[in-house]
Amino acid sequence: MFRVNSKKAIRRIGDKSFWSNKARNTIAVMAIALTSILFTTVFTIGSGMMENLQRQTMRQAGGDGMGVLKYITDEEYERVKGHELIEKISYNRILSDSVENEELLKRHGEFYYMDDTGIQLGFCEPVEGHKPEAENEIMMDTRTIQMLGIEKAVGSPVTLELIVHGKEVKRDFVLSGWWEADPVFNVSLLITSRAYVEAHIDELCKNYDAGENWKTTGLINSYIMFRNAWGLEKKMERVIVGSGFSMDENAENYIESNVNWSYISGSFGSDPVTAAGAVIALLLIIFTGYLIIYNIFRISVVKDIRFYGLLKTIGTTGRQIRQIIRRQALVLSCVGIPLGLAVGYVIGCGLVPVVMEAMVVGGKGFRTEISANPVIFAGSALFSLITVTISTTRPGRIAARVSPVEAVRYTEGMEGGRGSGRKRRGNVLFSMAAANFWRDKKRTFLVLLSMSLSIVLLHGVYTFSIGFDMDKFLARFVKTDFLAAHAAYFNYQYSGRDTAVPESMIEAMMEQEGFEEGGRMYANIRDVEFFSVDPVEGGRNIYPETTSEDGTMQCAVYGMEDFPLEKLEVVEGEIDVEKLKTGRYILEGLPCDDSGRPLPEASHYSIGDKAVLHNYRGESDVRSENRLTDYEFEVMAKVKVETYTNSCGIGFNYNFYLPAETYKEMVSHPAVMNYVCNVSPEGEAGMEAFLKNYTEKEAPEMSYTSKGKRVTEFQGIRNMVLLVGGVLSFIMGLIGILNFINSILTSIIARRREFAVLCSIGMTGGQLRKMLIMEGLLYTVLAGIAAFLTGTVLAFSVIRQLFSALWFFSYRYTLLPFCGIFPILLLAGAVIPWIAIHFWVKSTDINI
Amino acid sequence: MEILKTEGLKKYYGNMNQKGPEKAPLVKALDGVDLSVENGEFVAVVGTSGSGKSTLLHMMGGLDRPTEGRVEVAGKDIFSLMDDELTIFRRRKIGFIFQSYNLVPVLNVYENIALPVELDGQRPDGEYMDRIIKTLGLEEKIHNLPNQLSGGQQQRVAIARALLSKPAIILADEPTGNLDSKTSQDVMGFLKVTSDKFRQTIVMITHNEEIAQMADRIVRIEDGKLVANKERRQ
Question: What is the pTM of this model?
Answer without folding.
Answer: 0.69
